Amino acid sequence: MASAAAEGTGRPLQIEGLSVRYGEFPAVTAATVSLGAGRVLGLVGESGSGKSSLALAVSRLLPPAGRVVAGTALLGSVDLLTLEGEALRRARGELVAYIPQDASAALNPVQRVGRQVAEVFRVRHGLGKEQALAQAVSLLAKVGIRNPGVTARRYPHELSGGMRQRAMIAIALALRPALLVADEPTTALDVTVQAEILGLVKDLQADYGTTLMWITHDMGVVAEIADDIAVMYGGRLVEHGAAVDVFKEAVHPYTSALLSSFTSGRLAAPKQPFVAIEGSPPVDTIPPGCPFHPRCPRAFEPCATAVPDTRTVATGHRVSCHLTEPA
Amino acid sequence: MTDIPAPFDWDEFVAAATENQIDATAASRRAERLAFAGRVGLRIVLAAVTILAVLILTFILEFVVPGNPARAVAGPKASPVVIAEVTRNLHLDRPVWQQLLSYIGNALHGNLGYSYVSDQSVASLVGGRLPATALLMAGGIAVELIVGGALGIWDGLRPRRSWVLASLNIGLLSVPTFTFGFALLLLFGYVWPVLPVTGGFGAEQLILPAITLGLLGAPYYANVVRDQLRETLSAPFVRTALAKGLSRGAILRRHVFRIVVPPVLTMAGMDVALFLSGVVFVENVFAWPGIGELQVQAFDNVDRPVLMGTVVVAAAAVVVVNLLVDLLRLVVDPRVRSESL
User: Does the beta carbon of B21 lie under 8 angstroms from any beta carbon of chain A?
Assistant: First the structure.
């Protein structure tokens, strides 16, 4: 099994000017993200920042109400956003796979887990029932399920949250995708299980060489696994760069605020006050100009009217903020 | 494998975990079967208790209702001596509980008594009518499932709800059974005489009553199928199926319809009960020789054993069909198996 690992290796991802709308609401506006083959991107933002819409658009799983109005998403040389019909079906699971936030809803409640994993092999490789199930059982073992044969015969409601998420990971990784999109897969789990799932995906990602996009609002998770970071706010990408650079020298006030609320929360000494970001993120309407300006402690005149250009402040470190404007 | 360091040896772990899985799988299969058999047994016992309760209640009800059956049998001009004789012959002079016990005892042996009017055994009278009623109900349910299912699937798969189904539903729901039955008879029997109107038991005679029974129930099925379909199509597990690279048809076949079917089954089971009261009317309009027609005759003649027999058999049929639906749901929907009953 491991010998085939080289075939499934990741490809570089280049998202260029991606915009997603739900009706008239701009969920994602002109997002540009680049990620090297086999690297891990931590896509960070609060609820409603557009990170999940970006993930679903790239995975080609947007609900009918959402549509991509502009942009490309090149995975290697293939634009994921223009694939249609048979080509799109073949790309699913092989080029791009998706791990959802809520595994219990993402598994069919009336089918045994083994059958749901085996279905990938049945449909995509044309395997027979027995063969596909045998593959599914060994895949379940590979995602760290200790008695895969028994688990394969269980229905989703008979498994724990961690087990269900492992089954979802097995489904996502079954065809060794070039790009794996993980949409907050640990949010619904308790803390110890979160750490296990995080470790599992990290190991399998390294083993397969898959390019990984991990969506989260948890800076701790990002610090744990990400090579690169992309920060989203109000549907726009505000800061994007290598994890080391962003953690060391965050430029955008929103990124700094996120980091200080993280350090004052998780990494704080006892009795140290918790730092929160004032105000709440935009829900119904995105403010004009820089979307963050109503909450920004360093906002000045241009912020409320003009959307800041994205500038490169250091090699591979791009920021969208009026503060970076040359004086 | 490449030289990327792993926290531990996956291959070894996978091999160890896969070993002995065959035994474990067989054991879990045996345990599942045992639990399943337990549930089935419990449901059968409950069904038997229900039938017994119906039998006792119906029997008591007949004694509460005024009127002396002996007088009905002997005729209005019979002398008190004759009536007393008849009363003794029919064991009507014995205490109620003795009559009830002997009725239950006989019923357990398949003997439901004898008709006061024709002296025929009730079991053979009802049994003779049973196939006709069962066929009519099956026809009615088939019409409901086909028409309602097709409309529901058509509307459920559209991006927007259709006004066609909404108005069709309102139209069908506001028509009373008897009007619809007579209208069909008039239309296809006289105006455009393609089907027989004389009644009787046969394929041609079945069409109109089956449509009358089924078409008026179809809107309920259409609504349930449409709502279930819409809800299921937006469920995250359908997105998972899409992400696996399944075609639209495969997603519907493999994932969606299995969720839509159980509530439809439950509805069909309840319809058997509904139809058993509905057939009384439809059978009489179309002169279909089923239990409903027999029941009306028995009522007219104060033929207590036959009336009692039709009620008991109908109740038993409802209980048995709902038992079957329950068992079918147990097979189709595994979540039902973890419910307490």
Answer: yes
Which amino acid would we find at residue A258? L
- pLDDT tens digits along B143-200: 999 999 999 999 988 888 888 888 888 888 888 877 888 888 888 888 887 777 777 6
All residues of chain B having their beta carbon less than 8 Å from the beta carbon of residue A120 are 244-245
Q: Write the residue in A89, A94, A106 that is nearest to B247 by C-beta.
A: A89
H or E segment and range at residue B332: helix B304-332
Q: How far are the Cα atoms of A221, A223, A260 from residue A266, in angstroms, in the given order? A: 11, 12, 10
DSSP per residue, A36-82: -TT-EEEEE--TTSSHHHHHHHHHT---TTEEEEEEEEEETTEEGGG
Residue A30 has phi, psi (to 5 degrees) of: 45, 55
Q: Is A315 helix (H, G, I), strand (E, B) or coil?
A: coil
Give the position of tokens 């019979």.
Answer: B78
CA distance A16 to A162: 35
CA atoms within 13 A on the CB side of B131: 5
Dump pLDDT digits (tens) for B285-341.
Answer: 888 888 888 888 888 887 888 888 888 888 888 888 888 888 888 887 777 776 654
**Contact in structure between B236 and A106 (CB atoms under 8 Å):** yes
Q: Mean pLDDT across chain A, nearest whole number? A: 88
In angstroms, the CA B182 to CA B200 distance is 17
Q: How far apart are the C-alpha atoms of A91 and A61, rounded to whole Å?
A: 12
Show the CA angle centred on residue B276, arms to residues B271 and B281, nearest 5°.
115
Whether residues B159 and A64 touch (CB distance < 8 A) is answered with yes
Virtual CA dihedral for B17, B22, B27, B30, nearest 10 degrees? 140
Nearest-CB residue to A141 (from B13, B255, B258)? B13
Weakest-pLDDT range from A213-222, A250-259, B328-337:
B328-337
Q: What is the ipTM of this complex?
A: 0.87
